């Protein structure tokens, strides 16, 4: 193996290099074929260009280490040098298709990322098709963008490659929108769970009764139910609703109206057999609306949960 300067030659076994890299395997097959055809004997020569002599030697040494890679030889004196050359080693691992070395280089570069180096690392990740490194760079950019904007690397990018700058800003915007959407979905899911629990508890109160409120003509149960913390809040709301004189304007009564309406929309008990108050009346009112405008009612039915939330 001859380095780009030509001053250093590294003896290596063709079988080891070929087994570590399919690109080197193809190159060696052609070179060895030429050696055999010449009839003069000798060794095949592989040139590693574009990197320093030390990096080329480290690359060959790592190919001999195999898929165990540098991480299995942390105590080696060459470990620090390998990490210092990880950017150039990533280029070689990409060019010669050595996946395990490529993964290690991405991890080594990503562990040393700073606001001052993240722009160069991001460009390197794009050139070498390194998704793991690209992801870590975007995370640091999103977290420390104010600091990155003040670096010389970002100013150079802005002045010389506006398309790359625009692409980075677009990705940061998309990531921020996804984060906001995810938070909104989580908040909605939490509300849906609370509404589902409220429906179960309302059915429990109106069917079995619990401590303070029970079905008509039946004494409420004396022992609290397992979900008593939520159940008591709904019982207090029902008691307020039954005594309030201004239900049309009272916020608490409006909340109770919504819960009763939601129960009626989900109730599958035949008319007249449900113990929940106003269930039958809400069902009749909904049927009248559907009869008047089927298309509008269908849209309202699809958005019922969102409307009530």
Automatic annotation (TrEMBL):
It comes from Aegilops tauschii subsp. strangulata. One of its GO terms (cellular component) is nucleus. This is BTB domain-containing protein. Gene3D superfamilies: 1.25.40.420, Potassium Channel Kv1.1, Chain A, TAZ domain. Residues 1-72 form the BTB domain. Keywords: Metal-binding, Ubl conjugation pathway, Zinc, Zinc-finger. GO terms for biological process: regulation of DNA-templated transcription; response to hormone; response to hydrogen peroxide; response to salicylic acid. It holds the Pfam family zf-TAZ. Pathway: Protein modification; protein ubiquitination. PROSITE patterns: BTB. The keyword Cytoplasm does not apply. GO terms for molecular function: calmodulin binding; zinc ion binding. InterPro entries: BT1/2/3/4/5 (IPR044513), BTB/POZ_dom (IPR000210), SKP1/BTB/POZ_sf (IPR011333), TAZ_dom_sf (IPR035898), Znf_TAZ (IPR000197).
């Amino acid at each position: 193996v001859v380095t780009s300067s030509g001053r250093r030659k590294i003896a290596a076994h063709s079988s080891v290099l070929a087994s570590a890299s399919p690109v080197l395997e193809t190159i060696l097959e052609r070179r060895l074929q030429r050696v055999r055809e010449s009839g003069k004997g000798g060794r095949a020569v592989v040139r590693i260009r574009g990197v320093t002599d030390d990096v080329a030697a480290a690359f060959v040494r790592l190919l001999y280490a195999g898929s165990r890679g540098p991480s299995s030889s942390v105590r080696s004196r060459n470990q620090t040098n390998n990490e210092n050359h990880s950017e150039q080693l990533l280029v070689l691992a990409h060019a010669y298709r050595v996946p395990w070395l490529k993964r290690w280089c991405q991890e080594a570069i990503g562990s040393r990322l700073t606001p001052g180096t993240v722009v160069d690392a991001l460009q390197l990740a794009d050139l070498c098709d390194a998704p793991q490194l690209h992801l870590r760079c975007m995370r640091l950019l999103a977290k420390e963008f104010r600091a990155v904007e003040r670096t010389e690397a970002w100013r150079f990018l802005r002045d010389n490659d506006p398309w790359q700058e625009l692409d980075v800003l677009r990705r940061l915007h998309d990531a921020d929108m996804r984060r906001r959407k995810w938070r909104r979905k989580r908040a909605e899911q939490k509300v849906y769970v609370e509404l589902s629990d409220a429906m179960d508890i309302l059915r429990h109160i109106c069917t079995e009764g619990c401590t303070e409120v029970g079905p008509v003509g039946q004494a409420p149960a004396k022992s609290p139910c397992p979900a008593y913390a939520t159940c008591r809040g709904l019982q207090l709301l029902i008691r307020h609703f039954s005594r309030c004189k201004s239900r049309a304007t009272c916020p608490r009564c409006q909340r109770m109206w919504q819960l009763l309406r939601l129960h009626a929309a989900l109730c599958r008990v035949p008319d007249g057999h449900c113990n929940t108050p106003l269930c039958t009346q809400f069902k009749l009112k909904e049927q009248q609306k559907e009869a008047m405008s089927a298309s509008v009612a269908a849209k309202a039915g699809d958005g019922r949960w969102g409307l009530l939330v």
